Amino acid sequence: MPLPLLPRLRRETAQAHARLEATVLIEDCIKDLDCYRELLKQFLGYYQPLETALENVSGWEDWDIDLSQRRKAPWIQHDLSALGLSPEEIRHLPRCPPSLLPETRSLAQAFGCAYVLEGSTLGGRHISVMLDGSPVPPGARRFFLSHGAQVLPMWKAFCSAMENFNLNASTSQTDELIGAANQTFAHLQRWMDRDRDRD
Asked: What terms describe the molecular function in GO for this protein (predicted)?
């Protein structure tokens, strides 16, 4: 029987996760409304096309995963609207092109990508508490509040499905899953760094 996946996944993505956190200084951004708005714009540009790509992967239903209940892009759009952006402005914000997204050619890769997006809700709980002392209005905090009291149950349900998938996975599929998780962190970092790279 394969060893539990989650500890290995955390261990083997730790460096990519740390590099992303060093690039995306969320705790600094929430102190300034303009910075917070720009942060959400960047997140939308990555989350929305990646969520669409994940929903186009078949097989989620076999593991009791309903991605329509786990979308984060609509929360970001809600927050941007609360911060004064019109629907047209939101629609025309830059989106990450498919060539720069992590690979989602298999369900294993899709699970790896989704692990990163789902895991972000855990960090969001910490940020949502910090927002109470920030200039960000209450109506523009939906993304970081995410599932609210259901964050942990939703996370545990996802991890359970991922572990069950891994029980039936080959070694190469497990490697694909972990590789896709690392790609997701790395590609988000590059997306967030793109303006700096053009300077």
From this structure: heme oxygenase (decyclizing) activity
SS3 192: helix
* pLDDT score, position 194: 80
d(CA 183, CA 175): 12
Q: How far apart are the two ends of the chain, measured CA to CA in Å?
A: 50
Distance between CA atoms of residues 32 and 11, nearest Å: 33
What architecture is the 5-192 domain classified under in CATH?
Up-down Bundle (1.20)
Which residue matches tokens 């109470």? Answer: 132
**CB 102: neighbour CB atoms within 10 A?**
22
Q: How confident is the model at residue 199 (pLDDT cuts 50, 70, 90)?
A: very low
Instruction: Locate the domains of the chain by residue range.
Output: 5-192
pLDDT above 80 (res 157): yes
pLDDT of 197 over the 80 cut = no
Share of the chain above pLDDT 70, in %: 96
Residue type, 161: A
Closest among 64, 37, 65 to 143, alpha carbons compared: 37
The continuous run of DSSP H or E covering 26 comes out as: helix 26-29
Task: List, for residues 68-82, the tens digit of each pLDDT value.
Answer: 999 999 999 999 999
> Which of 30, 13, 36 lies closest to 186, judged by CA?
13
Q: What three-state secondary structure class fits 65? A: coil
The rounded Cα 161 to chain-centroid distance in angstroms is 17
